[in-house]
Amino acid sequence: MIKITDIHKAFGKNEVLKGIDVEVAKGEVIVIIGPSGSGKTTLLRCINFLEKADSGKMTLGSTQVAFKHATSKEILAIRRQTAMVFQSYNLFNNKTALENVMEGLVTARKVPLRQAAEIGKNMLDKVGLADKHNAYPSRLSGGQQQRVGIARALALNPEVILFDEPTSALDPTLVSEVLAVMKKIAQEGITMIVVTHEMSFAYDIANRILFMDGGVIVEQGTPKDLFVNAKEERTKQFLKRIVPEWSYNI
Predict the structure, then answer these.
(1) DSSP code at position 198
(2) 211 with 218: CB under 8 angstroms?
(3) What is the distance between the terminal CA atoms of the chain, rounded to a whole angstrom?
(4) What is the pLDDT at residue 185?
(5) Half-sphere exposure (Cβ direction) of 147: Cα atoms closer than 13 Å
(6) 145: closest CA among 180, 201, 96?
(7) Is the pTM for the entire model greater than 0.90?
(8) How far apart are CA 231 and CA 236, in angstroms?
(9) How far apart, in whole angstroms, are the C-alpha atoms of residue 148 and residue 93?
(10) How many helices (H) and strands (E) would you count in the chain?
(11) Are the C-beta atoms of 119 and 105 separated by less than 8 Å?
């Protein structure tokens, strides 16, 4: 479904992505872990063309594109098949929850207002916000705001949803409600690429985990492969810091 070949990205002299290859099958949940600065978020942003990679190729469905030479038409085709959930929610403060979910449908997809409202309500109901359609972001908790962000992504009916550390800005008491929604989505067979530090979620939900460090994929495999039988020393050292004493009761 998604195939990324030899993607490179540098900011000035800082080479952030150093020739990454990734393949994701339809319905697969890929979780990317690794230390800060390893290139995880940059990879997601390049997939969605929020950043333009310096080189490499990507195939998404029937769309093939060379990152460096992508045309506006090709970028639009990719964006129509993807949706992003950001760590900082990125909601419009002057719009209600429903209006935030409808925004992309109306402005980008040109969906009629009545149809967009129906889709928006259904998606908010799906993420447990049936009673918050008309609430403004200032009246919502961080967890509720992030669930609006997830509803907004689902409303676009994308081929793949990209999650960029969706719980990192949340109070620890609110993390579980967002992860529960993401788990439900994963169980429905929606293709997901998730950057996260939530190791329990990664272990329970991922079909495959990629460990990134220094702009490369150091190791990848099933959750058991990485959490229990990691082969690379860099992977082992990272997991020892994140999951003290190799406690995998998760």
Answers:
(1) -
(2) yes
(3) 30
(4) 93
(5) 29
(6) 96
(7) yes
(8) 8
(9) 12
(10) 9, 10
(11) yes
Structure tokens at 199: 């190791």
22, 16 Cβ separation under 8 angstroms = no
Six-digit token pair at 5?
């070949």
| Tokens standing for residue 87 | 């760590």
Q: Which two tokens stand for residue 27?
A: 């319905």
> What does the pLDDT look like over 38-62, one tens digit per residue?
999 999 999 999 999 999 999 998 8
DSSP 3-state of 182: helix
Alpha helices in the chain (DSSP H): 40-47, 72-80, 97-107, 113-126, 142-155, 172-187, 199-205, 223-227, 233-242
Under the banding of pLDDT at 50, 70 and 90, the label for residue 172 is: confident
> How far is 149 from 164, CA to CA, in rounded Å?
12
Exposed/middle/buried for residue 188 (C-beta within 10 Å: 0-12, 13-18, 19+): exposed
Strands 14-24 and 2-11: antiparallel
C-alpha to C-alpha distance for 65 and 234, rounded to whole angstroms:
32
